[in-house]
């Protein structure tokens, strides 16, 4: 995700964990510093980029503060499912036979 784009919305920021938000904030502040430096030396080509990065920083701060106040929910950690073991045809047939035997007993 690049900082200062129209794609950066609060809906997208809601999916980020706190650590990632802090990382994005650091990147945005670093980019703002570089843009200000370019502006001071006359090398800045896109002045609208300054405004976009400032707004992104404000969005990130808003999401962080709303999470602190309990207004906005923190996303639940995503659990990565364990890899399923590959079964041979014989093992699958044995499992199916065992399941069939259980259903007959019941």
UniProtKB/TrEMBL annotation:
Encoding gene, per UniProt annotation: rpmC
Family affiliation: Belongs to the universal ribosomal protein uL29 family.
Organism: Agromyces mediolanus (Corynebacterium mediolanum)
Keyword Ribonucleoprotein: yes
Protein name: Large ribosomal subunit protein uL29
Example GO biological process: translation
Keyword Ribosomal protein: yes
Alphabetized InterPro entries for the sequence: Ribosomal_protein_uL29, Ribosomal_uL29, Ribosomal_uL29_CS, Ribosomal_uL29_sf
Region (Disordered): 81-106
Pfam families: Ribosomal_L29
Single GO term (MF): structural constituent of ribosome
Entry's Gene Ontology cellular component terms: cytosolic large ribosomal subunit
Entry keyword set: Ribonucleoprotein, Ribosomal protein
């Amino acid at each position: 995700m690049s900082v200062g784009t129209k794609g950066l919305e609060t809906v997208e920021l809601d999916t980020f964990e706190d650590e990632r938000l802090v990382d994005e904030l650091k990147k945005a502040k670093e980019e703002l510093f570089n843009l200000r430096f370019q502006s001071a030396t006359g090398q800045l080509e896109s002045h609208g980029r300054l405004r976009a990065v400032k707004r992104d920083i404000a969005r990130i701060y808003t999401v962080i503060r709303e999470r602190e106040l309990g207004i906005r929910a923190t996303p639940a950690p995503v659990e990565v499912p364990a890899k399923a073991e590959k079964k041979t045809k014989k093992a699958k047939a044995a499992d199916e036979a065992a399941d069939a035997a259980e259903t007959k007993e019941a």
